[in-house]
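Case study.
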Amino acid sequence: MTCAELSDIYELYALGVAEDDEKIEMEAHIARGCETCRLGLADATALNVGILNLVEIESPPSRLKRRVLASIGVEKPGWGWVWALSAAGLLILSLWLGLQERTRTNELADARNQLMNTQGQRDRLNQALQFLSDPQTQPASFGRGTNAPPRGYVFLHPQMGVLLIASNLPAAGAGKAYEMWVIPKGGTPRPAGLFQSDGRRGLHILSGPIDMAALGTIAVTLEPEAGSAAPTSTPIIVASAS
Amino acid sequence: MTLFLKMSLASLAFAALQVVMRAAGDSTLIRRLQERDPKALSEVYDRYGRLVYSIIYRIVRNPSLAEDLVQETFLRIWSRAASFDAEKGAIGTWVLTVARNRAIDHVRSTDGRLQAGAMDLDRLENTSLFAQLGTDALSLDRMRRLQEAFQKLTPTQRQVIDLAYYEGLSQTEMAERLKQPLGTVKTWTRSALKLLRDELAGVAIA
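After joint prediction, the assembly is written out as follows.
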């Protein structure tokens, strides 16, 4: 294809939605240092971002900035009303735990302590409570029968998604993060979000509907802190959904 | 289907505000990010956080999930800032592209659409591409021209733009979704992009 023909799809290529044959042609031009296509792609990227910039504006919750900054290790949360809200949530959580087996109670109590650590996690607690209190939620354990490695529970809900609570989970380390994967039966792992451990415990929620019938396994691997498109290390948590 | 860009005066005013804020100079901000100054990320959030959330929310339509993806977006900006050319780059274009790609990546993975797509988007976030863009890529003048151009698109042209930008569909996938011949979808898409391109042609990027 000529540069003139490719110019029709510069924007689509920059969006990652060009057809396969067009991608191959485009990349061949780029690889041979085609100046026309390089400049065309730069203009297309500017147009794409301009279009995105015209989106209808929504207001994010004010806590989101704290959560973003907490994820890089700054913006320590204040306590005060966070404690009160967390305590109320934890009371409900404790009542629910009373109905469950004793071991689960102990592990979730561990998670309870972790939930008090940051304000961002307080929000997650509310989500976790919704998970735990909904009759459609299905638990699946992992790490049973092992000594030191991570163990805990995965809770699955067809509308709310996946809640992972793990104990014995060491800190990911500098430049690293834990990444959860959703693996359909007979399928390939799909990225399901990044999270950190406080050195002992980790909690992660994948929000949104999941296909319970098709779901095979939930796994966690250690990845670079920006995440990976596919697992690059051996899973340290594997929980079967069945 | 909901068509995108209910462009209100409020959103244009917000865009204007953003432009004024961006004028403060991206290069200093990028340099501070590269020096791992957490306040720099805080500033990037102040400039672009609302827009990032809006774009992601527009794609995933789930507030809680949008928050997760906003966090991932800024984590990625933080961890990859070192590769950005502080002298040439326009950080806003990069931040918005990363935000859109994170959300599209999520939608594709939950739809079970090609894992390879994730690698495509990752490659298209290469910071060297954004080093070629000036800081005026999001100028108020360009935004105004784009907004006017959108008013000229037909409903079908807006629909295919919506599907490409906010659902990450290729033209073949659009044809299947809309139950229209591929040739028709290509005509709609390419004529829409040409119109938008032509309307911006007279507005230079610094």
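Observations recorded in class. The CA atoms of residues 177 and 223 of chain A lie 5 Å apart. Residues 63-240 of chain A form one domain. We will return to this complex in the next lecture.
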